[in-house]
Design a protein that fits this description.
The protein is of the alpha/beta class and 342 residues long. It has one domain: TIM Barrel, CATH 3.20.20. It is built from 16 helices and ten strands. The strands form two sheets. An eight-stranded parallel barrel has the order 3-4-5-6-7-8-9-10, surrounded by nine helices. Strands 1-2 form a two-stranded antiparallel sheet.
Length: 342
């Protein structure tokens, strides 16, 4: 098949398979996987462009982006899995996704795992909060009995159809029950089959170190929650401690919010964004980034070639039936190259 810069021309219109195997290989490599958060496909593409080996679908950001509301358990499983699928469909790097509480009991967890697998993500984390859950760095969290969560972890592990699909068990018990109880829960979830553990909302570097020491040889996820309860520890220190996955869940979301506020303020005050345009990507740069060149290549590859007598075969009156302006809407120049083409 013809390629664009070494890739099939259809590459950006189809999902690359094998995300779970690629995430598993990263885990087995011994490197620390740095996975910034994405809240939609565009932000995921930016994570990939920046060179990160994986991307994290943030539940906090998904709730903010889809419904403009806080992460307090308002989204359904299908809404979350749908967003995960759209993200996974547009990047080649593995996607780690927030799956909240698994959306119910072990039977619901089975369906959740199936939905996220079908969405093309590489792994999920499920947590032991009482539903409706809250963001892990908010006050007022409650957790279900550890034994109940053990059965949800077992169900998740046994439900996956791809052995490489990564199940990360998260405990939010640090706040309501204390660190020692949270670590005890982690041991129970690991024994139930979790591939990795996520001890949420640690409150100091000492606690982060204690969590690592409690689980020798077990992959742990560190949540570098921007503005959350966990202090800002340098990435080098997090690596030294031994964390295998580091997520930055909402940095891109906060940056996007700040950027949109600035440009909207400029329009409100100046009447147009003209003065700020030099700070933004150009229209041509942006459409190149989101894949217009690959789309055009695909259009050219699959275009119907006009041959002798084509006009006669179309039949009488074809041009009339096409309707006014049809010629402007089709053909190799369909894709816009600058704002004047919109």
């Amino acid at each position: 098949m013809p390629t664009s810069q070494g890739r099939p021309v259809t590459a950006r219109l189809t999902r690359r398979p094998g995300g779970p195997a690629r995430l598993r290989a990263l885990l087995d490599s011994g490197q620390t996987i740095v996975a910034p958060g994405a809240f939609d496909p565009l932000s995921a593409r930016l994570v990939e462009e920046a060179g990160f080996p994986a991307v994290y679908m943030t539940g906090f950001g998904t709730s903010a982006a889809l419904i403009g509301r806080p992460d307090v358990g308002l989204l359904t499983m299908t809404e979350m899995a749908g967003n995960a699928g759209r993200i996974a469909a547009c990047v080649d790097i593995p996607v780690i996704a927030d799956a909240d509480t698994g959306y119910g009991n072990p039977l619901n967890v089975i369906r959740t795992v199936g939905a996220y697998e079908a969405a093309g993500v590489a792994g999920i984390h499920i947590e032991d909060q009482v539903a409706p859950k809250k963001c892990g760095h908010m006050e007022g969290k409650l957790v279900i009995p550890a034994e109940e969560m053990v059965q949800k972890v077992r169900a998740a592990v046994e439900a996956r159809t791809q052995p490489d699909f990564v199940i990360i068990a998260r405990t939010d018990a640090r706040a309501p029950e204390g660190l020692e109880r949270a670590l005890q829960r982690g041991r129970m979830y690991r024994a139930a089959g979790a591939d990795a553990l996520f001890i949420e909302a640690l409150t100091s570097e000492a606690e982060a170190r204690e969590a690592i020491e409690a689980f020798p040889g077990v992959p742990l996820l560190f949540n570098w929650a921007e503005g959350g309860k966990t202090p800002p520890i340098s990435l080098e220190r997090v690596k030294e401690l031994g964390y295998r996955i580091v997520i930055f869940p909402i940095a891109a979301l906060l940056a996007a919010t700040g950027g949109m506020r600035r440009i909207l303020r400029e329009i409100a005050q100046a009447g147009t964004p003209a003065a700020a345009m030099s700070e933004l990507p150009t229209f041509a740069e942006f459409v190149d980034f989101i894949g217009l060149p690959q789309v055009r290549e695909a259009e050219q590859r699959y275009a119907v070639k006009a041959g002798p007598g084509t006009a006669d075969k179309a039949g009488p009156g074809t041009a009339d039936k096409a309707g006014p302006g049809t010629a402007d809407k089709v053909g190799p120049e369909t894709g816009a190259r600058d704002a004047s083409d919109i």
